[in-house]
């Protein structure tokens, strides 16, 4: 009887230990890190932090956001590619850093296939602004200024904001000098302070300064006018065939376990379908397309090909 009792106790202990170990192994059981490719306070940072709060609720775990700006959005992704693929190191993946900027490096630190993706978490809109004291009021004025001997300066965070300038330079003969900043807010503030003659940034970075009268919006640089500023035409409506496309995705290093991938994919899609998240994104002049991980990965692959063609056709120089 004693032997049976001891055996029963041992069996129970083993089962409890196994159950406890399984509970501890279940993902996620500790805080997750989310890296952002640009500085604090900018449009990408604001969006990423809001997305993280929604993802926390779906995963039931804390998400710690880190800003890792540098190298036009590629520094953060190169660091992410080297982290352990366990699902505890995630990153906001910029479409243009992966498809455009990396191609302009002689030794790209990563490829679009070095990561696992869980979805496209937001798509941007863009506006072109000048200091309020500037005499530039539309695209014709802007191009005329670029044809002066000194040309015109523009503040950006890298791609995709600088991509239209390759087209403008080739089609108009204007001179455009790029000045890089770590965040869109920095670039917009530089324009407000007359440190640069223009800036091409997201509405959430520029509109507060437009509303306060420090800078002037002269064109929407996407395919639709900016909400609240419908009186300002797009660049295409003003006769210049340029626009900016940019989106952000959620990524992890390639090689994460399949069960972890499924958890993150499901949680991401739940966030993208959440009406509160969609409503918030609209307040930021961003859009949610509910694109899952594999579809976003394919979009990046297609974009890499089209951007490669664009770089060759425009004779865009290498960065290093």
Automatic annotation (TrEMBL):
InterPro entries, sorted: BUG (IPR005064), Bug_dom1 (IPR042100)
Protein's UniProt keywords contain Signal: yes
SUPFAM superfamilies assigned: Periplasmic binding protein-like II
Domain of life: Bacteria
CDD domains in the record: PBP2_Bug_TTT
Keywords assigned: Signal
Signal in keyword set: yes
Segment forming the signal sequence: 1-23
Family of the protein in this entry: Belongs to the UPF0065 (bug) family.
UniProt protein name: Tripartite tricarboxylate transporter substrate binding protein
Organism annotation: Achromobacter spanius
